[in-house]
Design a protein that fits this description.
This protein has 128 residues and is mainly α. Helix content is 62%, strand content 0%. The chain has one domain (3-114). α1 packs across α5 (98-114).
Length: 128
Amino acid sequence: MTEEEYFEKAKLIWQNYVPKSGQSEFVQGELLRAIEKLRDEAHRNGNINFNEKCHGILIGFVREKLSDEKIFDEKTIEIINEDLNRLSIEEQPYTWDDIFDRICDRIVDWNIFYGNEIKHENNTELNC
């Protein structure tokens, strides 16, 4: 897929599966909400509000879903994990878009593989 096609598909996921507030009912919506919440915190707030009950849980959720060997090869999973490790450094907010965009592309790949409307169970520990 081209960059533009990835962007358009991500936009459709956002419009259809990410609620105005709270967790998504669907995994693909929650994945996209999670990475955009992490991007917003780093870019807008410099990670000043970064905490384990929110951002840590979101990173763990994205890592769990995108470490799927049915979809991604070993090298891709390694890159995903390196990217998420970088986003996990609270004291060093990552303010470029490349990592966030790369993760968004992998979310689109996840969605293409599994299809739409995969139910997401709310995480009661998530505080954001």
